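Lay summary. Proteins are chains of building blocks that fold into shapes, and those shapes determine what they do. In this project we predict the shape from the chain. Here is one chain we studied, written as its sequence of building blocks.
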Amino acid sequence: MVSLTASLRCLLILSCGDVERNPGPPPESAPRSEVLRRFTRFIQSELVKHIYKANNYNLPTHLYERDPPGWNRFEKDTKFENICNIKTGGSQTFDKLVKLFKKDVRPIPTDIFDVIVCYEKLRDSKRNPDETKWKVALENYVSQNKSMKNKQAVIDNLDENLMIEVLQKGAEKVKQGIIGSTDEGFDNIVVAIDQVLDAILEHNTNHTVEKSKSAGKKRQATETVTKIIRNRGKHYKAMVTQGSSHPTSQQLDTSMEILLLPSPPSPYCDGILESEDIDLQGD
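And here is the predicted shape, written in a compact code that computers can read:
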């Protein structure tokens, strides 16, 4: 069994965007059926959660252990199940779920609103020249939201070892110019580092006070760590004071870089949808 640490390391790599598990062909050339399959499997649980919330029901411990609220109001022959676990019939289950979602959820989140329209257009398409746009929209939704979930999983399970990996990965990205390439980005990194160092210093100081009550004096190791932290803090302030928005490789090698800030949302169907094409009110 893959350990939790190994799984989180995998999530870290995926969330950084360097690799993708079973990436397959680009969306433009991917088969229509494959794009639809990936999209429906990814978004199904999100639709179910919205339906529970819209009906003021608590989520079950296992999302697919019972039918969601209102499932048997129509098309009673269609069984509710996790389409990731079935080989055939998944499209009928998903399409019924979409109908229930459109009937019960108000307001419909804009990002889901857009991709559902793209999904229905692609599903019903007969060699439409806009198929490529719809494919890209669905694939973008999956990849961007998967990345956000991966990042959140890393943050939620962050420990010292994983944090070191994040910092090391961040340092590589800074050297490549991917992170911290703008003044604002660099300032955000410095602020984040400062917060981490302040927290370490505060924890270390409190720990020292507790120890000193019984030992009578501060341990040498603690003094050393505190001195390093303070010196690094002075180093960051000096860099900012000198107006260096692009630190050198040598500076980066003696610093720690981390930026755990949310990315701004990106439109998935920008320029694709026309207002008269959209009808998500349900029957």
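What the prediction tells us: Residues 183-215 form the longest helix (33 residues).
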